[in-house]
Write a structure and sequence with these properties.
By secondary structure, the chain is of the alpha+beta class. The chain is 54% helix and 19% strand. β2 and β3 form a beta hairpin. The chain starts with a helix and ends in a 25-residue tail after the last helix.
Length: 329
């Protein structure tokens, strides 16, 4: 009886120990939410699991490799790319991607770091391909709203501003956009997606995170901006000189008009005054002719003798009133 009990206890203990060993070696594993796994056996892929749950593996033989199931991001390296106009720009992209086939992904890369390196090369290549085929305005702008706003603004401009716009057509730099940055991003994504499906990857989008001019293009842009501003300044100066000449011409014309009108009025007043004086003189002469002659002679003496230092003879009728008031010598 004791031997039977001992054998039974030994068997139970053995089962417990065996179970403990199995549990310790991990026959069970959990796939968490947002994760997916690849089970490899003797170097080959045995199975994959993309749904969360509890799964069984063969201890010591099956290896579990876990990958994220969520959307991942990848920031690309800055690269110097020429546009269609052969203007070099610095482009820095960011993209979103996810693993759609863990088996293909494992066969292609094994690790995420390897995938990042390969995907970065693909994204850089597709970005360069699309940018080199398009103008700079298509890359940095998404719509023609700037041109539309300028058109509306030009309709509300006064004549002076329109005159300046005619001298310097600054708005020509705003080229019409037919695709825009959004469409180019789609083209980059489509170009890259031609290669990534074989790696078990889906590339969701590629977006330029930063676009800036290269050093030589920056200097060129600055020089062009300076030239344009100088042209605008010269246009304003030219317009100002024209306005100045116009107003000076108006001023001179108004001056001549005012002087002419003043001269006309003065001559008219002088004529009226002379006529009135003549009338008064005539009336005075008619009342006392002798007194009139005496008065006129005195007025004449005041004008002729005031600057005369010496008179050698006064024996003339002109001086007759110097000796008597009635003009008799």
């Amino acid at each position: 009886m004791n031997k039977t009990i001992k054998k039974t206890l030994s068997f139970i203990i053995g089962i417990i120990v065996l179970g403990a060993i199995l549990i310790a070696t991990g026959p069970l594993y959990i796939v968490e939410e947002g994760k997916q796994v690849v089970i490899t056996r003797f170097g080959g892929i045995a199975t994959t699991h993309t749904e969360a749950g509890l799964y069984i593996k063969i201890p010591f033989i099956d290896q579990v490799t876990t990958y994220p199931k969520l959307v991942l991001s990848l920031d690309g390296d800055s690269q110097r790319i020429p546009t269609k106009e052969n203007q070099f720009i610095i482009v820095d992209t960011t993209s979103r991607w996810k693993i759609t086939d863990p088996a293909k992904f494992y066969q292609s890369f094994k690790t995420l770091d390897n995938a990042y390196n390969k995907l970065s090369d693909i994204i850089d290549s597709s970005t360069r391909t699309v940018i080199t085929q398009n103008r700079l305005s298509e890359i940095v702008r998404s719509s023609n709203i700037i041109n539309e706003q300028n058109t509306v603004a030009n309709q509300d401009q006064d004549d002076e501003t329109k005159a300046i716009e005619s001298l310097v057509n600054v708005n020509n730099v705003n080229e019409s956009v037919t695709k825009g940055r959004g469409e180019l991003c789609k083209q980059m994504t489509l170009e890259a997606n031609k290669l990534v499906p074989e790696y078990g990857i889906e590339l969701i989008d590629i977006v330029p995170r930063q676009i800036k001019y290269s050093d030589e293009l920056t200097e060129s842009v600055y020089n062009r901006m300076i030239k344009e501003r100088n042209q605008v300044a010269q246009a304003y100066r030219s317009l100002g000189e024209g306005k100045k000449a116009e107003w000076m011409g108006r001023l001179e014309s108004d001056k001549r008009t005012i002087e002419s009108e003043a001269y006309r009025k003065s001559e008219e007043t002088k004529g009226k005054a002379d006529a009135e004086a003549s009338r008064i003189y005539t009336s005075a002469y008619a009342k006392d002719p002798e007194f009139y002659r005496f008065w006129k002679s005195m007025e004449s003496y005041k004008e002729t003798l005031k600057n005369t230092d010496t008179t050698y003879s006064t024996n003339m009728d002109y001086f007759k009133y110097l000796y008597s008031a009635d003009g008799n010598r």
